[in-house]
Structure formats: C-alpha cells, structure tokens
Design brief:
The radius of gyration is 24 Å and the shape is globular. Strands 8, 9, 10, 11, 12 and 13 form a six-stranded antiparallel sheet that branches. Helix 1 packs across helix 2. By secondary structure, it is an alpha+beta fold. The longest helix is centred in the last third of the chain and has 18 residues.
Length: 311
Amino acid sequence: MEFRAPSVATEQTMRAASYLTENLEDPSAGRMVLNGLINELGSVVETFPDWHPILTIPAKGSTEEIYGLNGLDAYKTIDHTVLFVRGFVTCPYTEEKADRLIEAVEKLDELRAYKLNQPLYADNAYPVVVEAYSVELEADGTIRSRDALIWFSQHLLNNVWSSQVAETWWNIRSLILGSPHGSRSSLFVNQHSGAHMRKILEAFNNSGMFGPIKESSLEMLSKKKRDTICETLIRAAVNSWDGESEKFDFELRGETCRANIRDTWGDGHELSVQVVIGDHDLYVSGFFYQAKKQATYTEPRGKRAFAEKFL
C-alpha cells in the first residue's frame, strides 16, 4: 500500500494528543501546546532513523551501535516521551530529572533543550523539549534532502570498518527511513531522498566494502507471494510427517528441507511447524490446524532466490 504521509501524520498526531493530554486537568490547553510543538518540530513520529542528529550527536565516540534514545547517556532521565521529525518532548516527574536532561543536552553541539511552561502528560510533570536545530524541513515537512543524504552516507561510512556483512535495503529499511514508513519514504524523508538512499546503500553493498551481502527480509515480494511460500512449505512438511518424529528431512523442488513439527498441546489439534533450508537460506514457521486443514504463519525470512522456488 502506498505511504500517504498526510493521513499518517494525522493519525500520529491523534495518538500523541491522547497520550500527552488525556490525563491533564485542561486537555484543550495541552492540545494547543502539542500543536505548537508540531509547528516547531514537525510531524509526530515513532522511531528516528539511525543517522538522525538526535541519535548520532550524543553517540559520538561510542563504540556501540545505538538504535534509540534510551541507549544514550545524555537522555537517561527521559520519561513519557513523544518524538517529532526535529526532536522530542519528554515529561519526567521531577524537576531534578528535567534539569539533568537540559544540562546534558546543552553540552552537545547542534542540540538544544528547554522546559515548557505548560503541562503535558501530567499536571505534575516537567516537560522538556529537545531539538536538533541543524535539521531543516522541506515544504512537505520532511528533512531537507541534501542534509538527509549526507547524514545517511556519513553514518554508513562510520560503520564500515566494523561491518562483517552488507545489509540489504529490505533488511534495514526501517533503520534508514525511520517509522512509520512506506517502501521508500517516511515522515522523515520524501520519495526523492528515500530513492537516493537506496541507490547509495546498494552501490556501497555492491562494492564489497561492507562484506558479503546478507539477505533476510523478503518484503520485496508481495504479501500474496510471501503467504504462498509459507503455505507451500508448511503443508509439504505436514504431508511428509510420519505423525511421530519431531525432526525430519524432506525434498521439495530440488531442495532438502529440515522440518521440526510438534503437537503444541498434545491433543492433535494444533501442530507447531518450522521449516529451514540450508544455513537459514529460507525459514518459515507457523501452526497447522489438522481439523480445518488450515495454516497460519509468521513472515518468511531468507534469500529471494530460494524463496521464489516455492511460488
């Protein structure tokens, strides 16, 4: 489904309004504060892309990969937090925690923090805004394309020496685009930026500088095709099962498949099924209900070339 940024932004705003204002004595005043923050910081979001200055600036010098605010020392005192394209608001319950956050952020270049005079989340909370003031927005509300591409490329190159495998676009798309996101855009980056990010990643991957390419996500295939792959392998495993062995091999379309089947509750109603091909070149798992002859399953994982054999 196409990613429709305006409708997604509206949904995000509604969730944030409920979270930040429903416990206030004056919710309408809280909604006015939230609207002001959206005007200043951009749309409400769920997670930052891993190249965003809000994450990379306080992570400078760290040898560990950082995927969220809670992993950063500067943000240790955050509590009840809502994210925006250019920063976040957080609502700790003590003024001491709010002051510690502001003090930590003010030591960092290109970030600033300040207290709000109006309550958010709770009337006795101390809301603090943290803003990446180097982040500038396009007319569509996404981060300026040139800046986003530079920050993204720098982040990739910062990790090149420690990299052992090259992750595909489909494996790490949510880390690149932030969330919520579509196939190549999000509330952080528009389709122009997202398309160029994918080209940059694939050029780096094809150069070999990150190591061998690791395929895992199969989201490049349609939902219908992913379902077909799971159905085919789970039903083939059940049809090859002797009714007793938990682990066994069977052949299908030129591949040796390793199956693991167990009776979930010991009553013959629900079978837990896993099928693996190669060194996790393809992996599916789910449940098969014998009375109805129906299967349910999680998302398949593995390499596209193997997966397409079972369509």
